[in-house]
């Protein structure tokens, strides 16, 4: 599908510097751009490619000042990264829009309802008393358990398992093989050394505009709900335990694990392979760097933490400087000891 530069600029509320009649049909990275593609420049580390790219058009910030001659038409916007993201979203809608109807074989319980403009892929299973909103896409081999609710404009990708009673909000995306609502890890130790299973009677609630990565697991609450608040984005291979609450617009990178009943605040950023102990409180706007271990409450908003156990990032960096100097310090101590002898 082709669009003119003028049409794209109108969509992005941008200004054109160059030939507005050029046609583009594909998206590309700036260093790989060819005729008929459109790219973007948001990080100045890639500025060199603007002067060599063969892309027909490039989206740039209005504040950007080229240092050399260039060939593509420029679309000037307030934020090039955000604008290109918008373009990607629109392109994705065009691709996904071709998926409609119910493929066979699939199973949909008679007691369940589907909103208009839906798609249900082959071998999908939709249980009893399920409510599916408008414009929802459920890809092949997905399992939707009894009494689940899925809001409007949400996408459930192939192999996703949503256990009974869970709630998926509007504009949510759950990527392939994620498991929403499996039992929380609850076992009571007995006097004879065995463990008795504690029934997990709650559910999982994903509020609106939540994204869940592939192979991520979010456990149902023992009682009440495990809640992922509005706008949270969770990467692949993340484990979120029972009764956890993840705050609004918080982002969590891959291989992070959050233990039961911890509460993560709003607008937090959690790096890859972070571990949080159970029953903790994490303040709003906390940043936790990769491979950190959180063992106590974080009360101050906007704190940046690193290390395991985690401490404030500046303190951790100073400690690492000293750690690297330990061999030299040891040698100096030996020299001093020898002189004293």
Give the tags.
29% strand, UDP-3-O-[(3R)-3-hydroxyacyl]-glucosamine N-acyltransferase activity, twelve-stranded mixed beta sheet, 341 residues, UDP N-Acetylglucosamine Acyltransferase, domain 1, Udp-n-acetylmuramoylalanyl-d-glutamate--2,6- Diaminopimelate Ligase, Chain: A, domain 1, flat, 4 helices, 40 strands, EC 2.3.1.191, ten-stranded parallel beta sheet, 17% helix, alpha/beta
Radius of gyration in whole Å, from Cα? 26 Å
What structural class do the secondary elements suggest?
A: alpha/beta
Helix percent band:
10-25%
Low-confidence stretches: none
As for the number of domains, it is 2
Shape: flat
Spatially, the strands of the biggest sheet line up as: 8-11-14-17-20-25-28-31-34-37-39-40
CATH superfamily of the largest domain: Hexapeptide repeat proteins
CATH class of the largest domain: Mainly Beta
Content of β-strand:
25-35%
Count of discrete alpha- or pi-helical segments spanning 4 or more residues: 4
How far the N terminus sits from the C terminus, by CA atoms, comes to: 84 Å
Q: Can you summarize the main beta sheet? A: 12 strands, mixed
Mean pLDDT: 94
CATH architecture group name of the largest domain: 3 Solenoid
CATH fold-level label of the largest domain: UDP N-Acetylglucosamine Acyltransferase, domain 1
Instruction: Find the count of extended strands (DSSP E, 2+ residues).
Output: 40
């Amino acid at each position: 599908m082709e669009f003119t530069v003028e049409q794209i600029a109108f969509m992005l509320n941008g200004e054109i510097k160059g030939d507005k009649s050029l046609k583009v049909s594909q998206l590309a990275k700036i260093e790989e751009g060819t005729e008929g593609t459109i790219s973007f420049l948001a990080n100045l580390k890639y500025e060199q490619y603007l002067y060599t790219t063969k892309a027909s058009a490039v989206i740039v910030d209005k504040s950007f000042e080229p240092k050399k001659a260039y060939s593509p038409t420029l679309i000037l916007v307030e934020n090039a990264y955000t604008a290109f993201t918008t373009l990607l979203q629109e392109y994705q809608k065009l691709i996904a829009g071709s998926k409609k109807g119910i493929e066979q074989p699939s199973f949909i319980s008679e007691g369940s309802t589907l909103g208009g403009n839906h798609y249900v892929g082959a071998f999908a299973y939709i249980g009893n008393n399920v409510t599916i909103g408008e414009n929802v896409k459920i890809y092949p081999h997905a399992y939707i358990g009894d009494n689940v609710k899925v809001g409007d404009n949400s996408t459930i990708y192939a192999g996703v398992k949503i256990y009974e009673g869970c709630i998926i909000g509007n504009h949510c995306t759950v990527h392939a093989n994620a498991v929403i609502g499996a039992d929380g890890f609850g076992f009571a130790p007995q006097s004879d050394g065995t463990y008795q299973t504690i029934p997990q009677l709650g559910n999982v609630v994903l509020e609106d505009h939540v994204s869940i990565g592939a192979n991520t697991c979010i456990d149902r609450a023992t009682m009440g709900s495990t809640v992922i608040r509005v706008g949270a984005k969770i990467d692949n291979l993340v484990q979120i335990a029972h009764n956890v609450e993840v705050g609004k617009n918080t982002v969590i990178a891959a291989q992070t694990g959050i233990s039961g009943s911890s509460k993560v605040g709003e607008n937090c950023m959690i790096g890859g392979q972070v571990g949080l102990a159970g029953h903790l409180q994490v303040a709003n706007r906390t940043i936790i760097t990769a491979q950190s271990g959180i063992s106590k409450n974080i009360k101050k908003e906007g704190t940046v933490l690193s290390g395991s156990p985690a401490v404030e990032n500046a303190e951790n960096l100073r400690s690492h400087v000293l750690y690297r100097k330990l061999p030299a310090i040891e040698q100096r101590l030996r020299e001093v000891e020898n002189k004293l002898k």
